[in-house]
What does this fold into?
Amino acid sequence: SQQGEEDPQALSIQEGENATMNCSYKTSINNLQWYRQNSGRGLVHLILIRSNEREKHSGRLRVTLDTSKKSSSLLITASRAADTASYFCATVGSGNTGKLIFGQGTTLQVKP
Amino acid sequence: DGGITQSPKYLFRKEGQNVTLSCEQNLNHDAMYWYRQDPGQGLRLIYYSQIVNDFQKGDIAEGYSVSREKKESFPLTVTSAQKNPTAFYLCASSIVGHNEQFFGPGTRLTVL
It folds into this structure.
């Protein structure tokens, strides 16, 4: 079963603009992760935010987590054409299974 | 190079045939996972293993089988019982207790 939903499903912006993607989930979590997938390729881990954190930065990425609203957002600042990809949030529930539950993803197109 | 590999990249299967997808990692990870991805969708967990000679069903295990005879290897067999096997299959690995997963490049399976 998929944990949550991502919004928007598709996003098209110009190079240099910021891109914001949102993820909602349903159950309590230990942490939330964001992954990137280039077309036809495997996923690459971008950033992990723990349930006791509210905001985290990594380079041009900024992730926020609101556990009261069961939602997270990924902001990519000063986007580049190379950022064109699909972005997925994934949650880890309680226990130690390591199982990730993925959202359906946001497809980002950055136009040069 | 350390990493996770999948083979073949493309696989074609006739109806009624079993096929086996290979996944190998040299990251010394104990945990390995198989996911299925359908077009425009997120990933769904098929099987996972946290230790050699042990594995658990994920959310969509019907029609699939796995083995974990070696730490480095986690092959997935798509059996004839899987009615709609055409999809993109992704293998991943992680350190048990660490939630970041490392993904292989994927195998695209098409049923003719």
Summary: The longest strand of chain B covers residues 43-51. Chain B is about 0% helix and 50% strand.
